[in-house]
Amino acid sequence: MTIKAIQTAGRQFIRTNAFVSLAGNGLSAVLGLATLALLARLCNQDELGNWLLFLTVYALTDTLRSGLLLNALIRNLATEQDPLQLRRWAGAAWQLSFGLLGGLSVLLLGGAAVGYWLGYGPDWPLRATWLTVLGLVSLPVNISGWLLQARARFKAMQLVRISVQVLFLGSIGLGYWLHQLDSTYLFTAYTLTHLLVGGVVIVNGWAQLGTVLSGTSVERRVLLGFGRYSMGTLLLSNLLRSSDRLLIGSLIGPEAVVIYTLPQRLIELIEMPIRSIVITDMPLLARQYGQRPLPAWAAYFNQQAGRLWLLVLPLSVGGIVAAGPLVQLLGGGNYADSAAILRCFMVYALFLPLERYSGIGLDIVDKPAQNLLKVGCMLLVNLLGDLLAILLFQSVLGVAVASVATFLAGLLLGFRLLQAHAPVSIKGAVVAGTKQVRDLTKKMQHEWVH
User: Fold this and answer.
1) Above 80 in pLDDT, residue 172?
2) Are 158 and 195 in contact (CB under 8 A)?
3) 3-state secondary structure of 228
4) Are both 227 and 256 inside the same structural domain?
5) Which pLDDT score is estimated for 121?
6) N or C, which end of the chain is more exposed by having fewer CB within 10 Å?
């Protein structure tokens, strides 16, 4: 393989949606880590813990919106060419988003008021108010992202996403300079950031705000019918991560949330490429499922899943070895207890590639309800493990150990459910992936020599 051939292949890869997705997610992960590292050094632990709890609840509400509408929009907009029908789909998305926001706001404000009346969570009424305001001003950002992704405009989609992070990172520096960097300032800055970016996407036409009255009951029913399973799966998946922080914050305290969150953000450096590769591979696997005999599709599935597992293996081992320096690099010298938690996360990172492929495999073979069942069982294992670790041992490390059990259970159950519909297996994936990487290495060595 000549240098010119390598350069040509590299230029072709850079133009692909897979590269745009990987690069955008990579930059987003780096900006997220930079933001957390800065806040860990500039905020006290109580204020940072309050901010992380606020962000956790917002992520849950955002997951409900995207889970209900994103995949359904992609399915119906990807091949749609009629301008009038495009406006109807966008309008239906706006209408459902407003309806969902109204329902969530009532639940948040009502729950916060009841908790305050009972003497629990005195800060939650203020947080719930900010969450409601943020949910409203972030609608243009979120809907523009869904519509851009549905039309395969990945560069614009990533630009919107990264702009929010860059502006918020800048506002942190401003808050530090003004000596106002507390949780209330962070709530305000995050909301204003979404308001500013939302205004830009409305002016550019990416959010299609003018279509809000165009949606009809036909489009709303289709979006709701398709989105119910994906919303449930995404919600439960998000709860797998956020439930740990919510339980730790409620039963131990905000400082413990920070100790747990630092390594959780570091593990995103492994989750990000896994997510990008799986999202890019899913349409191809879906097409192959309809075109190939089932045994051939299963062999291809095993090959793709096993290859990703093998690529993650050295990253996971490296993270276990270098856990101490990685935590110190992100949070400074005040979070040494986070190193042991990171090592646990690196163990469950070994299960992630195969677990994620088992989930998309169930969706591809038209069994989304079983995928929802799998994630629901994982959440149950996680909640029971968290409560055991916190109530009996007051141990944040025990919560991380519960995460290992959670993803192992998801991996085993996912493949067990998928095996009823296709001849796939964990062993087959590992063997097929190892063989493919070995053959690719030999081929590259041969071409390089010749």
Assistant:
1) yes
2) no
3) helix
4) no
5) 61
6) C
